[in-house]
Design brief:
Elements: H1 2-5, H2 10-32, H3 38-69
Length: 71
């Protein structure tokens, strides 16, 4: 979608998602190693929702909406 829209912040947006996936992988490995990660994971996900989805994804949605209304 971002490439299709020619979204100017595509690279940064994808980079944030890559870091998100890497952090989730690190949590998974820690949990598999016996570490109790529940609180850290909950805090991480809460922060992601609050910061990424509410701001970064919202900015992308506004850009997409603007592009949709352009002739």
């Amino acid at each position: 979608l971002m490439a299709e829209l020619a979204y100017p912040k595509t690279k940064q947006h994808r980079s944030q998602h890559e870091r998100f996936r890497a952090q989730l992988q690190a949590f998974k490995e820690a949990a598999e190693g016996g570490q109790n990660i529940e609180r850290l994971l909950a805090r991480f996900l809460k922060t992601w929702v609050q910061n990424h989805i509410r701001f970064v994804d919202k900015e992308l949605a506004a850009f997409a909406k603007q592009r949709a209304t352009q002739p």
